[in-house]
Hints:
CATH topology: Rossmann fold
Number of strands: 5
Structural class: alpha/beta
Mean pLDDT: 92
CATH class: Alpha Beta
Amino acid sequence: MSRFRLALIAHDQKKAAMVAWAERHRANLARCQLFATGTTGSRIKDRCPELDITLMKSGPLGGDQQIGALIAEERLDGLVFFVDPLSPHPHDVDVKALTRLALVYDLPMACNPSTADLVVAGFEARRRTA
C-alpha cells in the first residue's frame, strides 16, 4: 500500500498548536508522505527531525498555491490546515482558494486539532485494513 500524502499548514498564531499536534502524532506521520508550507514545515522538522517533510514556499509567498496545485493534481490524500479565525490574513484570497480546492476535490481537510486527530485516525484505520 502506498503512503498517505498529507499537507500541513498553519497560520502564524496556530503554528505552535500544529507543532504540538505533529509531536503527538509523529509515529503516524512518519508513515505519511508529508508536504508543508515553509515556516510551518521548518518548525515541525525542528521538533520532529525524523519526519520527512517536503517544504514548499512560505504561505504568503506562494506555498498555499503550491499545496493547491498538489490538490488539483490529485497528489494529496488529506490537508491539515490550522486556521486562525481571529486574525486578519493579508493573503486571505490564497487561503480561500486552497479551501475551495479541497472542497472541489473532496479532500479530507482538518482545520483544528480535534478534526486532524480524526483524519489521521481514519488514515491509520484504512492502512490497517488494506
